[in-house]
Design goal:
The chain has 639 residues and is an alpha+beta fold. Helices cover 22% and strands 20% of the residues. A six-stranded mixed sheet has the order 5-11-10-13-9-14, with helices on both faces. Helix 5 (127-135) crosses helix 7 (146-163). The chain is globular, with a radius of gyration of 25 Å. It starts with a helix and ends with a strand.
């Protein structure tokens, strides 16, 4: 009877859900829900807030499920509701090796991956049904009512604490084991990495306005030291990190992609190399999986499929490495970029804005990237930390098939804050360069083609800004001549979009509008002073040398023909259908030598790195980067 009485306020909240939809909740309602649930289940409010922040950053996503079927601020999972959408993506029509010297791979069927039944689901994917049993609240209420969802999370934490034989203490330091168990991880390393992140949030504190306009605050406790001993009694398995190349601050395992021969001239699914000696490593490429964890792992272990270096799990940030950094994975669709990059696949979907990327995964990814960048000397900027959607087509023919993930709903601004490289404004207001930096939550760009051609995407924050041919939202979108089709508002159409962290030279200004040089033309975006979508920047820009009306651009920085030794076919420079016109300026990200890694056989003894005398500049040309010969341009600093 006492338990039922405690649940009455929550039941009333759930029964009034329809009424709540017609009137906005007070901005403090979610904070009060955390306080009420903490008191009801005797969980420290700070612990409840910290766990929720790591799951959703307190967002409710209007009751939409995440990629793993997680709901609400506590990300309570019921993956049975999303099984039909978590099958792995189909085989890419594009050859993700991106090397025209290699024959196109023979078509091979996508391996069948049976979606797990409800009984086969791991515990981390069915926490919502358990929360329903603990609270007496309906699954529907736990999915759609934030207050009920928070109560469900509090009940799960309290149950985990009791299962460990621990008291329901008021001291947050005593809840480390329960927090680790809340992650749903079945191994000690992943559970501990998750709990460590939660306690880091508790030490630093957070304050944020959520996607529903709720203001939530977690006060900092900088001296908080958790008591970790209870985790040893949790009965979790020991996960081996042997073979994996990861920092100690993340949970990581080695799940190798096969380097196997399956025919006279076919092998997969990566190439052996000796990086960073031959060739070096300059880029990290961020992808999303377009599929659920189990299916993705099955795909990367198929020798007839493609490969990438690391996969990151949504629920708890766990990492699996598949290809050693010394070897070349096939993931970017551009052989030059593949040979010089490390590819990271994040569990998620580009065209499902509310199938969100969790904070746990963002933080694990940022720690991995920080580690890799320090190890291989990779600058932490947006011309070296690329999205797959920023990788250029290697040739004109390859442009239309280039991928567009992780898409406009990946929060680059938050990601770079976690990397310790926030996109700060340069001093002064009249700079000749800008860094794209909209407020992600408030920047609700309208996209289409989510869930079907022409269908509108759900309203959601975005890290991209839309680009127009004039300072008017009724004007035409800028056109990407390389794509060959009319520009659209489709979520996969990147031709008229600039992304957070990218830098461009200012071409013009008009009231609240700013124009940048983009794809060889003026591209306008709304940039009001009261709510700017870009901030001043400084850097170097490239423009054609005097006397030239325009110079060619390339999707790869290959050496000149005379650099190729006997036995290695010379690769054509193959200019793209773009120009860097006279009088236009484009931000320079790096100067690189012309190089080609020749690797067309299973064995590595015939692989060669061809290096020439020609040098190139990588520039931010459109949404994607491009390369221009250093001999064709002059580079000057801007202030």
């Amino acid at each position: 009877m006492a338990s039922a009485a405690l649940l009455l306020p929550l039941c009333a909240t759930a029964s009034a859900a329809d009424a709540a939809q017609t009137r906005p909740a007070p901005a403090s309602a979610l904070q009060r829900a955390f306080a009420a649930a903490a008191a009801r289940y005797h969980v420290p409010q700070s612990v409840l807030l910290g766990v929720s922040y790591l799951q959703s950053r307190w967002d409710a996503h209007a009751g939409a499920p995440s990629v793993t079927g997680g709901y609400g601020p506590m990300h309570l999972t019921d993956a049975r509701t999303a099984l039909a959408d978590t099958s792995p993506r189909g085989r890419d029509a594009q050859d993700l090796r991106g090397d025209s010297v290699r024959p196109a791979p023979r078509p091979a069927p996508v391996p069948h991956v049976r979606p797990p039944s409800g009984t086969d689901l791991p515990a981390r994917l069915k926490t919502l049904p358990r929360a329903a049993r603990l609270t007496g609240l309906s699954p529907a209420a736990l999915r759609t009512d934030p207050a009920a969802n928070v109560a469900g999370g509090a009940a799960l934490l309290a149950a985990a604490q009791r299962d460990l034989g621990e008291p329901l203490s008021a001291d947050p330091a005593d809840w480390y084991g329960a927090v680790a168990r809340f992650s749903g991880a079945d191994d000690t390393a992943t559970a501990a990495a998750y709990a460590d992140d939660v306690y880091e949030v508790l030490r630093t504190g957070e304050k944020r306005t959520t996607d529903a306009g709720q203001t939530v605050t977690l006060a900092a406790r900088p001296a908080l030291v958790p008591r970790t001993a209870p985790l040893r009694r949790a009965g979790l398995r020991t996960l081996s990190a042997a073979g994996a190349e990861c920092p100690t601050t993340v949970s990581c395992e080695w799940v190798p992609a096969p380097h196997e021969q399956f025919g006279n001239d076919d092998y997969g699914n990566h190439d052996v190399a000796d990086r960073p000696s031959s060739p070096d490593i300059r880029y990290i490429v961020v992808h999303d999986t377009e599929g659920g964890w189990e299916g993705v792992l099955s795909m990367v272990q198929d020798p007839t499929y493609v490969s990438w270096n690391y996969s990151l799990r949504s629920t708890d940030g766990h990492i699996a490495q598949h290809v050693k950094a010394k070897d070349v994975a096939w993931h970017a669709g551009n052989w030059y970029v593949n040979s010089k990059s490390i590819g990271l696949e994040h569990e998620g979907f580009l065209a499902r804005p509310d199938a969100w990327f969790t904070e746990a995964m963002y933080r694990a990814s940022a720690r991995l990237v920080t580690y890799l960048a320090a190890k291989y000397g990779i600058p932490l900027d947006r011309q070296h930390i690329l999205g797959h959607d920023n990788v250029p087509g290697p040739t004109t023919a390859g442009i239309p098939g280039m991928h567009t993930d992780p898409g406009p709903f990946w929060d680059w601004r938050h990601y770079f804050e976690l990397l310790g490289r926030p996109f700060d404004a340069a001093p002064g207001s009249g700079a000749g360069l800008v860094t794209i930096r909209p407020d992600y939550a408030a920047n609700r760009v309208a996209y289409t083609d989510c869930g079907g051609q022409g269908l509108a995407c759900a309203a959601h924050g975005s890290g991209d800004v839309r680009l127009y041919s004039d300072h008017d939202e009724k004007s035409a979108l800028v056109k990407d001549v390389g794509d060959g089709s009319a520009p659209t508002t489709g979520v996969n159409d990147v031709g008229a979009r600039a992304s957070t962290g990218q830098q461009y030279a200012v071409a013009d200004r008009w009231g609240d509008w700013t124009a940048i040089w983009y794809l060889g033309q003026k591209a306008w975006f709304k940039n009001p002073e009261a709510q700017p979508t870009a901030v001043p920047a400084t850097g170097q820009v490239a423009t054609p040398k005097d006397g030239r009306d325009g110079v060619a651009l390339y999707g790869r920085a290959y050496p000149e023909a005379g650099a190729y030794p006997a036995g290695v076919p010379a690769q054509p420079l193959s200019p793209l259908p773009y120009k860097l016109p006279k009088g236009q300026k484009y931000v320079v990200g790096d100067e690189v030598p012309g190089e080609y890694y020749y690797a067309v056989t299973f064995a590595g003894d015939s692989h060669r790195l061809v290096a020439g005398d020609d040098r190139y500049y990588e520039i931010q040309y459109g949404h994607r980067v491009a390369f221009v010969r250093a001999a064709d341009v002059q580079v000057t600093p801007t202030t």
